[in-house]
Write a structure and sequence with these properties.
This protein is α/β, with parallel strands linked by helices. Helices cover 47% and strands 15% of the residues. The protein starts with 5 loop residues before the first helix and ends in a 12-residue tail after the last helix.
Length: 328
Amino acid sequence: MGGDLGHTAAVAGAVRALESTPELQLILVGDGGQLKPDIEALSSAHRSRIKLEHTTEVVAMDQSPRQVLRNKKPYSMRLALEMITQGRAQACLSSGNTGALVALSKAVLGTVQGIKRPAILSPIPSLNGVTLMLDLGANATCAPALLCQFAVMGDVVARGDYNIARPSVGLLNIGTEQGKGTELLNEADAMLRESALNYVGFIEGNHIFTDAVDVVVSDGFTGNIALKTMEGFAQFFAARLSESGRTHRDEAGSSLTDGFMQILDTRTHNGASLVGLDGIVVKSHGSADATAIFHAIEMATKEIHSHIPREIERTIAQYKFPAGELHV
């Protein structure tokens, strides 16, 4: 109920996912008065695989996470997360308030043993196919040991969801040389060099799109700014490319334009995973349409099959980073 395009986009995306994945069943959590007409318009085959959980309470985009936690209302977001703890669902997907989703997810699900805080991870289009990047906004400030935990979680997702045998990991900085950047980054760099991860050192922002690394680690403040900058540039470049395609309509130019437009289509990479939680939670972009919702559901099902929370729990136990405060 929390996306910019409302329940209509969610239902349409759900239908695409049902058509793509025969074993999938979905529970739509929200206002039954609005959802029922859309569900009843579906084929009987689709209706049989969709359940409705009714609530009129929705987290507003301007509500603070603290306010949402304090109010014990049956928000659609809270009910969806509770279904995981009840065994009624294996994953939760939301297009709503990101801060509230992170706070509620941690309160309802908790983190897996050994993980202090969850992080937001998303695939970024690159010469590798995708580069996985975290944290993208859950933790504005991060101590070195927390960045190391993010590196482990990124490694697990790269192996489990993307079948990369030994993922390379880089730490986002203002230069690649040792000693560059903040004291915290250099402490994290030293810890990661002593770990068993395939850590390659510092990388810069331009390396996100190359084949330099499979996983980029950052604090949430820097990562979120980088992500929003990338999204803005993709939209700008797509608009300019579309104009160029209309001007030059020869077959070769049209084919090239179409190819670039597919790469720049952020909908096909929609879905950011809240890794580190004791359950699977995927955050969809607030402006997601049916196509974007479909791809976010794909991400959730991929994590179900890969057993990501349990793999993170198993793997983090093997790493003994220096003891100390995990937050600043």
